[in-house]
Design brief:
about 60 residues; alpha+beta; three-stranded antiparallel beta sheet; 4 helices; about 60% helix
Amino acid sequence: MQPDDIDIAHADQARKESPFLTTAEAGTYVGLSRRTLEKMRTGGNGPIYRKHGRYVRYHIADLD
């Protein structure tokens, strides 16, 4: 399995368990890299995200 395949599998599994995705899973879901989402987040643009404690999470509905 390639790293992208693993991320896709994680995103699929996360959707079944929770509507929230990590930055890496969200990137795979929308076709962007994790780093691109991080840059968008610090620049104040990009998809809506939530902070769960110290963790950033993206809701699938916001990514759609």
